[in-house]
Design goal:
It is a single chain. The protein is of the alpha+beta class and 330 residues long. The chain is 39% helix and 24% strand. The chain has six helices and 13 strands. The chain is elongated.
Length: 330
Amino acid sequence: MASTLYFVVALQIIFAKVGFVDGILSQDIGCKPRKVLIPIDAPRYQFFPRFAEVFRCGGACSTLSPNIQQCRAASWNNLTGQIFDLSRVTDPLKEAVFENHTSCQCECVVKAEDCSDNEVYKAEQCNCECKYENDPPPCPVRFTWSPFQCKCVCGGPVLFCPSRQEWNHDACDCVCTQSAVENCKYENKYLNASTCLCEEQGPQVLVTVPGPPNKDFRGALRETAQYNHAFILLLQLTAAKSMDWGPILIAMVVEFIILVVLFDLYLLWRYNKGCIHWIVVKCSRDPKAARGPESVSLANGNSERADETRNSQQYATNLKTFSKSQESVV
């Protein structure tokens, strides 16, 4: 079916070239240098002219998909020109260099270096083919061979991981959690990759985990080794320049005392209470001040009631005297 379709497309292209078919098929879309406008200093556009016209490779590589072959530059030269820098008041003229494609060729998108150790590169097909179709190589523990990916892949997670560890699918094993790593970094200690515990001193052994023998896994090992080496250097640097906590603690205590004093002053001003008010009352020599506002008001109330009682008694005495005088007159 695909071969028939390609044959029909080829006939239409031939007819378009000789003039039997008009429209899009009559356009030349082959791989060759084409004039294009490229922006200068985008997106600021502080140069004039804003664009430059150069040749760049573009177009289709026969009937192949651009995912298989792409049009790339085979040779090029440099074009120089004068442009104006609008941001400069004095001496705005400057020289610019642009890349100009002179010839093009079709290249495979997938290169030989993109293939893994388990694959072989097919230049005519622009892809990688697995070398082990019928006889796959042995895989490490917990890994199984995948004919579609042409490599050993993790068979699945274990039932559980020990404390301070978590499952890692790439390593197909339990590894130390990120919190354990950060905890050791905070305590300026070394991380034991076997127990995931923090130790004062330990051998600087890079952690290696079992995995499939392919290029992807070796790259993961290299990244793990680089990460462990950088992590050990960071711990050593942090331990060498440990922070002095003495001045920080003193500053925190002084700040706490200031906050307490400010809060007590607020209580004295707003409610006439607090430690400062209690000290002022105790240290005062005025008995009324010692008793406080409530005691003074209570004493004033008692004196007023005493005056009312004496007035009522005097009134009663005067009334009796007046009554007796009336009786004597009668």
